[in-house]
Batch of 4 targets.
Target 1
Amino acid sequence: MTDDAYLFLLDDASARLGVAPAAVGELACMETPAVRAWLDAQGSTPASPHLRLLPPEETAAIPEGAERLPVPLSDEELSRVRHRMAPEPLARVEEELLAYRDCADGWDGLIGRALAAGVAPHRIVELTGVDPATVNAAANR
């Protein structure tokens, strides 16, 4: 596993791998000279349907031989990438977890639903800011 996310180009734009950077919103790395030069060298643009982005824990899925570039993402940018990649049921629960930051009422049920839906405990901690021990206790109930 690497600490960097990766931009990469897919031959088949219809493949469901990674997320289009444009779908994530503004990313600081997209404005860097390194990314702009890489895109120019590939004959691509930030809006290309072939351009995709994967978080560090998913980069092993990049097809062998695909053009790729490691890019640093802020914690907030990385959270948005992960959220866009989540399947719809998980994405809805993740939205609730993000909203949880603003209220503490009913956290027990929400964390239980998130765990039951398959959201990883470390992701719940990342989204809510809840103490990892609290999430682990809920997971062990």
Target 2
Amino acid sequence: MVFLSVVNFTRSRGPDEFWRKRRIFRLAAHYIGRSRNCYSIAVRNVHRALAYATKARKLKKQDMIDLWNTRITAACEQHNITYYTLKEGLDRANIMLDRKSLSDLASWEPRTFECLAAVAKQKVEYDGFNDGTDKNRPTGTNLKLKDVMLEAWLKENKKF
């Protein structure tokens, strides 16, 4: 396009406006009615949707943390140990597992989680750590490390 005067050049919006509008219309393609076809309405709805999406990413992370905590707490109650005692015992035993890993173990590998709970409880008792929470709250069975581990496995490890 050739502009013979500066006035015509400044009035021409050119291809940039087309691509800017196209980006908004592509984000609004699944809307219904004028919010899909009218640019001034579509741009408002797209901006609001993008703001909600930004908030939702943070809320999704918080929801997952709450779910993991709930699963771990439920598994801890089955084994008569509090979540705080489990975490403290695992930290003292240098077993560094995060919430997600503990939650997966609690839901998909309950025997492994039972062993971890027994190790944590044994380490806490060995160190003389006092939880300070009500001991009557957990309703599960009492754990002992010898009950969880197989005697044959313990004997094999003593040979080395």
Target 3
Amino acid sequence: MDAVQVVAEPRRREILRLVWDEERSAGEIADRFDVTFGAVSQHLRVLRDAGLVTLRQDGKKRFYRADREALGPLAAYLQSMWADRLDTLAELSEAAERAERGEGTDT
């Protein structure tokens, strides 16, 4: 499976986002999802087999981190996608605050 196919799956993109800037344990990653640990583990395996995350084992714990170099041009695309989502969230939050204060959106 190529990198584009791997990151096409929404949960795997979310996993990449979680491990983009910092290493996280498999349990910490799984806690962020509403599916079983086994399901998250399978997604982590796909990401690892594609070379998109690195794995470090410390005793029984497994720690994952995104391998940005392996993502190549997809890394910039993912970062811009996440930034766009954050911008949209900020805009929605600001609109909700204005609505609570009774301010209109007309200028």
Target 4
Amino acid sequence: MSSDNRLDLEFAYTPYADSCRDLYSPHYYCRRPRGHDGVHAAGFGTNRLRWEHLPDHAPHMLS
């Protein structure tokens, strides 16, 4: 799992267009670089979320 400091750097230097954007819910997208290794992550500090991608889990679509 990536450290919070490492994730903060990834988020800071990854443009939105180059971020992974694995859809976790209608509100959170992965902000790590596209094609990254390990868990997906979004958010900062105590609100940070990490999750595994589940291949058989269909994405939640925004309405």
